[in-house]
TrEMBL record:
CDD domains: Terpene_cyclase_plant_C1. Residues 259-461 form the Terpene synthase metal-binding domain. It comes from Gossypium mustelinum. Pfam families: Terpene_synth, Terpene_synth_C. This is (+)-delta-cadinene synthase. Its cofactor is Mg(2+). The keyword Lyase applies.
C-alpha cells in the first residue's frame, strides 16, 4: 500500500482529530540516570570482595557438621542478605544433607525454617510437619504465641503453601493475628520488632530481592550477634552490584534519550526506570547484564506500542501499524504516519541489533521467538481496539483469551531468555512459547490486577473492560433468573 492511499488523518506528524488520549504523569526521575556512575571500582576493592567471598564459602562448607539450627540460620541469613547467588552449589549441598538426614525437631523455629528453606530450593517437604503444633482439638497450641521468632518463621513458611494445604492456611491466620497482637503490645525488642512489622506488611515471598536485601542488611547490622565477615561481604557486594546496575540503567537511558521520544511521542509514558527495577526482580546477577538490556529495551518498545494503541492512534492508523509490525520490514516505514515512524524505525533497529549480538554468540534462533511473541502482543492490542471501535462487547472468556497475551507477561518470559547464557536451550524457548500453565496463570492474575487498578483512568482497553464487566454481570443475572 502506498502512502498516497493512506487516510488523510495519517499525513503529517499528528492530526488534530479527536483521539482517545490518556494523561500519564511524566517520569519522576528526570535525567538523573543519563550520567554513568562516578564511582570506580579499584583493584583493591575487587580483591577484598574476593577474599571475603572465599571466607564465607569456607563458612558454608564447614557448617555441615554443626547443629541443625546453626546450619539453617546461616543459610537463611546468606539468602536474605542477597549474596546466596555466589554460593548456590554449596548451599544446595547443605540443604540436601539436611533433607536426606530427615531431621526431626519439636522446636517451632527449627521446623519452620527448615520447611521454608527446603521448599524454596525445590525440595519437597510435607505440610504435615506442622500437625505437631496442634492440640487435641485441632487448633494451633496457644503456647506458640510466646515464641515470637517461631511465630514469624511459621508465618513466612505459610506463604509457601500450595492448593489444598489447609494447615498452612490456618497457620497464616493464626500467626498474622498473634504477631499483630505482639506488635501492638510493644513487647518485641528491636531489631526483631522491625522484622515483624515488615513481614506483616510484606512477607519474604512477595518481596523484590534487591530491596529486601538492602533492608535486611540494615536489620542484620543492628543484631548484636551478627557475623562481621558476612555483614561486610554483603555490604560490599550490594554496593558493587548497585554500581553495575546504575551503569546498565545509564546505558539504556542514553539509548532511549537518543530516540527523542518526549518530542516525537509526547503522549507516551516514560517508565524506563520502573521497568528496569521490575527486571531486577527477575535477575540481578552480573552475568545477566545483556539479558537485562534486551528485556529493558523490549519493555520500552512494548510500552510505546501500548500507548499508541490505547492512548492515541485511530483505528485506520492502527491497522497500518499492525500490518507493519506483523512483517517487521523496513519497506513498510513510508506507509505509516510520521509519529508512528518514530516508534517503528527504532523497533526495527532494536531487532537488528539484537540479531547482530545473537549471531556473534551463535544463538540467532532466539531472535525469532522474541519477534514472534512481540507480533502476538501487537495483534492482541489491535483486537481490543477493534472491539472498542465496533462497540463489540466480548464475553469474559473472549476477553481473557486475548488479554493474557496483551498483558505482556508471556512476552517478558520469552524475551528474558534471549540474552542469557548457554544453559538456555532451544527446548526452553519451545516450552515458553507454548504458553505453559505457570505463565498462563501468572498472566491471568497480573492482567486482572492491572485492570482493577487502572480501569478508571486509562484508555481504550479499560473502557472495553468496563463494558465486558457489565456484560458478565448481565449474563450472570440472566442465569439466575432462568
Amino acid at each position: 500500500m502506498s502512502s498516497s492511499k493512506l487516510p488523510s488523518s495519517t499525513h503529517g506528524s499528528m492530526s488534530n482529530q479527536k483521539r482517545p488520549t490518556a494523561k500519564f504523569h511524566p517520569s519522576v526521575w528526570g535525567d538523573i540516570f543519563l550520567s554513568s556512575p562516578t564511582t570506580n571500582v579499584d583493584a583493591r576493592t575487587k580483591l577484598q570482595h574476593e577474599e571475603l567471598k572465599e571466607e564465607v564459602r569456607r563458612m558454608i562448607k564447614v557448617v555441615i557438621d554443626d547443629e541443625l539450627l546453626y546450619k539453617l540460620r546461616l543459610i537463611d541469613t546468606i539468602k536474605r542478605l542477597g549474596v546466596s547467588y555466589h554460593f548456590e552449589r554449596e548451599i544446595e549441598e547443605v540443604l540436601l544433607n539436611i533433607y536426606e538426614h530427615d531431621y526431626k525437631d519439636d522446636q517451632t523455629v527449627e521446623t519452620t525454617l527448615q520447611f521454608r528453606l527446603l521448599r524454596e530450593n525445590g525440595l519437597g517437604v510435607p505440610c504435615e510437619w506442622f500437625n505437631k503444633f496442634k492440640d487435641d482439638e485441632g487448633n494451633f497450641n496457644m503456647s506458640l504465641t510466646s515464641d515470637v521468632k517461631g511465630l514469624l518463621e511459621l508465618y513466612e513458611a505459610s506463604y509457601l503453601r500450595v492448593h489444598g494445604e489447609d494447615i498452612l492456611e490456618e497457620a497464616l491466620g493464626f500467626t498474622t493475628t498473634h504477631l499483630g497482637l505482639a506488635k501492638a503490645a510493644g513487647t518485641i525488642e528491636y531489631p526483631l520488632s522491625a522484622l515483624v512489622s515488615h513481614a506483616l506488611y510484606q512477607p519474604i515471598r512477595k518481596g523484590l530481592s534487591r530491596l529486601e536485601a538492602r533492608r535486611f542488611i540494615s536489620f542484620y547490622q543492628d543484631d548484636a550477634s551478627h557475623n562481621k565477615t558476612l555483614l561486610k561481604f554483603a555490604e560490599l557486594d550490594f554496593n558493587l552490584l548497585q554500581i553495575l546496575h546504575k551503569e546498565e540503567l545509564s546505558k539504556i537511558s542514553r539509548w532511549k534519550n537518543g530516540l527523542d521520544l518526549a518530542t516525537k511521542l509526547p503522549f507516551a509514558r516514560d517508565r524506563l526506570v520502573e521497568g528496569y527495577l521490575w527486571i531486577l526482580g527477575m535477575y540481578f546477577e552480573p552475568q545477566y547484564s545483556l539479558a537485562r538490556e534486551i528485556l529493558a529495551k523490549t519493555i520500552v518498545m512494548i510500552t510505546l506500542m501500548d500507548d499508541i494503541y490505547d492512548a492515541y492512534g485511530t483505528l485506520e492508523e492502527l491497522q497500518l501499524l499492525t500490518n507493519a509490525v506483523q512483517r517487521l520490514d523496513a519497506d513498510y516505514i513510508n506507509q505509516l504516519p510520521e509519529y508512528m515512524k518514530s516508534f517503528y524505525e527504532p523497533l526495527l533497529d532494536f531487532y537488528r541489533e539484537m540479531e547482530e549480538a545473537m549471531i556473534k554468540q551463535g544463538k540467532s534462533y532466539r531472535v525469532k521467538y522474541a519477534k514472534e511473541i512481540f507480533k502476538q502482543v501487537n495483534e492482541s492490542y489491535f483486537v481490543e481496539v477493534k472491539w472498542c471501535n465496533e462497540n463489540y462487547i466480548p464475553t469474559m472468556e473472549e476477553y481473557m483469551r486475548n488479554a493474557v497475551v496483551s498483558f505482556g507477561y508471556i512476552m517478558a518470559t520469552i524475551v528474558s531468555f534471549v540474552g542469557m547464557g548457554d544453559f538456555v536451550t532451544p527446548e526452553i524457548f519451545i516450552w515458553a512459547s507454548n504458553n505453559p500453565k505457570i505463565t498462563y496463570a501468572s498472566s491471568i492474575v497480573g492482567r486482572l490486577m492491572d485492570d482493577v487498578a487502572s480501569h478508571k483512568r486509562e484508555g481504550t482497553v479499560h473502557r472495553l473492560l468496563n463494558a465486558t464487566r457489565e456484560n458478565v454481570r448481565s449474563q450472570k443475572k440472566k442465569h439466575v433468573v432462568n
